[in-house]
Specification:
The chain is an all-beta fold. It has no helices and 9 strands. The protein has one domain. The protein has a 3-stranded antiparallel sheet with strand order 2-3-7, with no helix packed on it. A hairpin with a 6-residue loop joins strand 4 and strand 5. The two termini are 33 Å apart.
């Protein structure tokens, strides 16, 4: 599933976004003690969700245009910065 296709109801759901910079999504479930159990809820219920034995993490995916991800294996490199012995 692509983040742009994520709905506001389900096991994974979009909480909000600030296009084109970031998108936040959440999930609700029980992630320990054997089999993972997911809950389907609406994004509007996320902040008030309080069922014992369940957790509800949120993730923010930040989109940055100035990070060069083509440098595989060497980590992202910010454009305009230089390290000794490494070409941009």
């Amino acid at each position: 599933m692509r983040l742009v296709d994520m709905k506001t109801h389900g096991q994974y759901f979009r909480l909000g976004e600030d296009p084109p910079h970031e998108v936040a999504f959440g999930m609700v479930g029980r992630f320990w003690g054997g089999e993972t159990r997911w809950e389907e809820i609406d994004a509007s219920e996320f902040s008030s969700f309080n069922r014992p034995g369940y957790d509800h993490p949120a993730v923010v995916q930040v989109r940055t245009e100035h990070i060069d991800l083509r440098r595989r294996g060497r980590g992202p490199r910010r454009r305009g910065t230089r390290r000794a012995g490494v070409a941009a």
